[in-house]
Amino acid sequence: MKQLAPLLFVFLWSGAFIAVRAGVQDVSPITFLASRFTLAAMILLPASFVLHKLSDWREVRRLWPHLAVSGILLNGAYLSAAHWAMADISAASMALIGSLQPLMTAFLSGPILGDRFRLLQWTGFLLGTVGVALVAGINIVDLGHTHGVIWGVLSCFSFVAGTLYYARYCKNSGLITTNAVQLATAALFCWLVVLGFEDIAISPTRSAILSFVYLTLGVSLGGMGLYLYMLKTGTAGKVTANFYITPGFTAVLGWLILDETLSGDAIVGFGLAMIGLWLIHRGGNLNQS
Question: Under 8 Å CB-to-CB from 5, ≥6 apart: which residues?
């Protein structure tokens, strides 16, 4: 499972971008998120009572403030800011901004978590960032959209902060109960955002329903569950490095599923990102202080 988790995570997370492009435009974005997190939490909460021991819930009672913070950062705040960013900039530019996540996590995990990286691994982080830049492209016009870029950077910061916070305080809690509490708090956060800032509009088209099902089951339950599992069994820098290949994999899925163009730059960038990821994992176990 430990070896297969990164591959399955990348596949599920990359598919999320296809699902968003296919159907989320039919529903108000934060309403979509709030509904998605609510359903996912409603599925996980009873499952956690059946599958987990009472001791896991005792641990959740002790850690719930930390789980709430990490859940809001990793789910609600991260995706809300990303949706607001993509109202002003393209998904490709958002992917480019998101490529800073692994580099920022690796840089901050030293003083926060005690992780240490070798020169070979830092080279991998740089190659991964360059690879994403080639896949996504650099849109000068988008970079001039200040509000969109700011929301994109805030989205990136939120996910990095949530990753480091979870790795610091929550990684020893039960996986299912952890994700259930995190999704429930993210749902509450998003509903508060909807009440304060969004006009609700819902058009239940076939593509919207299919996107909702995939993003709820495949990403909020499957993808986020795998991400938390990898953080429990690995180190934050290596785990977030998997994001380097999601834009390239998304481009391949878009070519296969949506008949989108797969450019030469995207192919080269995908290759560089994969080499970067290989170098990061080839560096061996991280020394921790």
Answer: 226, 229, 230, 233
Token duo for residue 137: 């492209």
Name the residue range of residue 277's domain.
5-282
What are the residues facing 202 on neighbouring strands? 27
Count of CA atoms in the C-beta half-sphere (13 A) of 169: 17
Q: How many domains in the chain?
A: 1
CA dihedral of 272, 278, 282, 284, whole degrees rounded to 10: 110
How far apart (Å, rounded) are the C-alpha atoms in residues 246 and 138? 17
In this structure, what token pair is assigned to residue 166? 């979870």
Nearest to 240 by CA among 100, 123, 97: 100
* 288 within a domain of the structure (yes/no): no
Q: Is 175 a domain residue?
A: yes
The residue written with tokens 């607001």 in the block is: 84
Q: Where are the alpha helices (DSSP H) in 145-205?
A: 146-169, 175-197
Residue 227 lies in a domain: yes
Query: Is 111 part of any domain?
Result: yes
> Contact 220/75 with Cβ under 8 angstroms?
yes
Cα distance between residue 217 and residue 126, in whole Å: 33
At 172-185, the pLDDT tens digits run 888 888 899 999 99
| 3-class SS of residue 274 | helix
Q: Give the torsion sign (CA, 189, 193, 196, 202).
A: negative
d(CA 63, CA 71): 12
Q: Which two tokens stand for residue 86?
A: 């993509």
Taking only the tens place, the pLDDT of each residue in 180-209 is 999 999 999 999 999 999 888 888 888 888
Distances (CA, A) of 144 to 34, 89, 98, 135: 30, 9, 17, 20
Cα 48 to Cα 50: distance, rounded to the nearest angstrom: 5
